[in-house]
């Protein structure tokens, strides 16, 4: 038996989570209710975040980036025409999550909190250098998405904390996209690649999904690759560094070895897609 | 163990219904166990199979992943309350004519997903139909006749 609580402010939600030891925050429920139905979790209280107006909506920040409320559904992100250029990757990833029905339910905050290694938002957000806004018993804080996943299903989120928003910093002049390798449409990724290519053709940001506990991003490698994107050997070396950082598992979606082979192919193929797009524009 | 029950006031297919349901129940449990509305099927109870799909405020969601407590003040529609809807009626007829229905367990969910697709994309390709129905598992038909039905309904509706 679970009691459902519906606070209307972030402060009340945090207080309720602190008050009840076995309470859990509930966003879309697409993962949490499925887990409860399977008796994998047995919370005494579910603190529903759906009545908290402050957690909703996608708004532009003063810096020209975006603040995406944690309760924003995947379907809203997938339909947000303002997410262009270096942020298009996030819109594209949202549209590839599961199917329309699940996209009507799941939220960005819930997906990030759940930190499934094969989920689509984490690599897309890593590619955008997103920042998480967090509220908890000790107050509010911000955390870079790159410091967020600590191990398999382990994150830097502390007991009793909730994600309130995901902030995208000021945009860079770039085009971006998301590629997902999955067995069938609607499945979780076997491997995925989020990439954004600077408009001047010099720099690149890449994050690989489903090949380790969290998204793989190699900023030193990106810096070394600057200005050498038309040199296949340099690109191959960069992809090799991502392979070295990867720590994939064997599962029903593919073997670890297959995933390691996908990484360089994804990097070259997505880079050539973005380069061609730029040449045609 | 008997779970503590709570009272909820819901809007189901345009009518106000009051129901006592276990605290923390899913909408699927409340509909099937407490209200005996059986059109939403319980397949996986995990959000995967699509057999429980219904509309909340006009949008398809999984009833097995939706809490009844969060439905107060929202409009719930099940497939049996949608017979008057022209698009739905056309889809239903094509499903029957093309052999898209065998045991019928998946059919309600398939129809709701298909109707959502046609609202957004009135002339979908076969590929688009398959993608839109990727969250609806059917263990009888092999899917081809279901895709035929959706494409056939779209063509008829476009005339
Ligand atoms: C059939 C199916 C297919 C799917 N396919 C994909 C896919 O291809 N790609 C993909 O990325 N995802 C996929 N998902 C997952 C989906 O995107 C979920 O919606 C998401 O992982 C969880 O989001 P939610 O809002 O439903 O969170 P919930 O289920 O409500 O919560 C998930 C977890 O996060 C905690 N939590 C929720 N909100 C917060 C918050 N704001 N702060 C802190 N903790 C919080 C909860 O306590 C819980 O532990 C799939 C899900 C289903 C059911
Ligand atoms: S019973 Fe809800 S999706 Fe299978
Ligand atoms: S007709 Fe039997 S499951 Fe689809």
From TrEMBL, chain A:
Q: Please name the SUPFAM superfamilies in this protein's record.
A: CO dehydrogenase flavoprotein C-terminal domain-like, FAD-binding/transporter-associated domain-like
Matching entries from InterPro entries are given as: CO_DH_flav_C (IPR005107), CO_DH_flav_C_dom_sf (IPR036683), Diverse_Substr_Oxidored (IPR051312), FAD-bd_PCMH (IPR016166), FAD-bd_PCMH-like_sf (IPR036318), FAD-bd_PCMH_sub1 (IPR016167), FAD-bd_PCMH_sub2 (IPR016169), Mopterin_DH_FAD-bd (IPR002346)
According to the UniProt entry, its GO molecular function terms are: FAD binding; oxidoreductase activity
Task: List where the protein spans the membrane.
Answer: none
Instruction: Report the Pfam families cross-referenced here.
Output: CO_deh_flav_C, FAD_binding_5
FAD-binding PCMH-type domain ranges (all copies): 1-173
Quote the SMART domains the UniProt record gives.
CO_deh_flav_C
Q: PANTHER family per the record?
A: XANTHINE DEHYDROGENASE SUBUNIT C-RELATED
This one is known as FAD-binding PCMH-type domain-containing protein
Q: Which species?
A: Pseudooceanicola atlanticus
Automatic annotation (TrEMBL), chain B:
Q: Which Gene3D superfamilies match?
A: 3.10.20.30, [2Fe-2S]-binding domain
Instruction: Pinpoint the 2Fe-2S ferredoxin-type domain residues.
Output: 8-82
Xref: Pfam families: Fer2, Fer2_2
Q: Which InterPro entries match?
A: 2Fe-2S-bd (IPR002888), 2Fe-2S-bd_dom_sf (IPR036884), 2Fe-2S_ferredoxin-like_sf (IPR036010), 2Fe-2S_ferredoxin-type (IPR001041), 2Fe2S_fd_BS (IPR006058), Beta-grasp_dom_sf (IPR012675), Diverse_Oxidoreductases (IPR051452)
Q: Name one GO molecular function term.
A: metal ion binding
Q: Which UniProt keywords apply?
A: 2Fe-2S, Iron, Iron-sulfur, Metal-binding, Oxidoreductase
Highest taxon of the source? Bacteria
Report if keyword Nucleotidyltransferase is assigned.
Answer: no
Q: Which PANTHER family match?
A: OXIDOREDUCTASE WITH IRON-SULFUR SUBUNIT, XANTHINE DEHYDROGENASE IRON-SULFUR-BINDING SUBUNIT XDHC-RELATED
What protein does this entry describe?
2Fe-2S ferredoxin-type domain-containing protein
């Amino acid at each position: 038996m679970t009691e459902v609580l519906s606070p209307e402010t972030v402060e009340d939600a945090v207080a309720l989570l602190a008050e009840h030891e076995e309470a859990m925050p509930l966003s879309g429920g697409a993962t949490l209710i499925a887990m409860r139905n399977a008796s994998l979790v047995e919370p005494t209280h579910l603190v529903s975040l759906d009545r908290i107006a402050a957690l909703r909506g996608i708004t532009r920040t003063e810096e020209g980036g975006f603040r995406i409320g944690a309760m924003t559904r995947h379907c809203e992100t997938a339909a947000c025409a303002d997410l262009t250029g270096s942020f298009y990757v996030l819109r594209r990833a949202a549209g590839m999550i599961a199917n329309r029905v699940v996209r009507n339910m799941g939220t960005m905050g819930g997906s990030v909190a759940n930190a499934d290694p094969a989920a689509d938002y984490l690599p897309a957000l890593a590619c955008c250098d997103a920042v998480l806004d967090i509220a908890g018993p000790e107050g509010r804080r911000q955390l870079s998405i790159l410091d967020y996943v600590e191990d398999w299903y382990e994150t830097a989120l502390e007991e009793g904390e909730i994600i309130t928003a995901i902030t995208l910093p000021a945009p860079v002049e770039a085009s971006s996209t998301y590629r997902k390798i999955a067995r069938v449409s609607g499945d979780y990724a076997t491997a995925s690649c989020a990439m954004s290519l600077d408009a001047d053709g010099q720099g690149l940001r890449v994050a690989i999904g489903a090949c380790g506990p969290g998204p793989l991003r190699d900023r030193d490698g990106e810096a070394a690759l600057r200005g050498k994107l038309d040199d296949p050997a340099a690109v191959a070396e960069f992809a090799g560094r991502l392979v070295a950082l990867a720590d994939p598992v064997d599962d029903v979606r593919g073997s670890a070895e297959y995933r390691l082979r996908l990484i360089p192919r994804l990097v070259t193929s997505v880079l050539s897609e973005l380069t061609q797009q730029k040449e045609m524009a | 163990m008997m779970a503590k029950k709570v009272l909820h006031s819901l809007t189901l297919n345009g009518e106000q219904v009051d129901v006592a349901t276990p605290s923390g129940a899913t909408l699927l449990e409340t509909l099937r166990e407490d209200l005996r509305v059986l059109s939403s099927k319980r397949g996986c109870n995990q959000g995967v199979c699509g057999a429980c799909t219904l509309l909340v405020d006009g949008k398809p969601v999984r009833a097995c992943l939706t809490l009844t407590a969060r439905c107060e003040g929202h409009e719930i529609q099940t497939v049996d309350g949608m017979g008057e809807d022209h698009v739905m009626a056309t889809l239903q007829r094509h499903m029957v004519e093309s052999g898209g229905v065998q045991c019928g367990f998946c059919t309600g969910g398939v129809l709701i997903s298909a109707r959502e697709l046609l609202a957004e994309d009135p002339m979908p390709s076969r590929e688009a139909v398959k993608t839109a129905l990727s969250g609806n598992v059917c263990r009888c038909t092999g899917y081809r006749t279901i895709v035929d039905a959706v494409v056939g309904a779209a063509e008829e509706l476009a005339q």
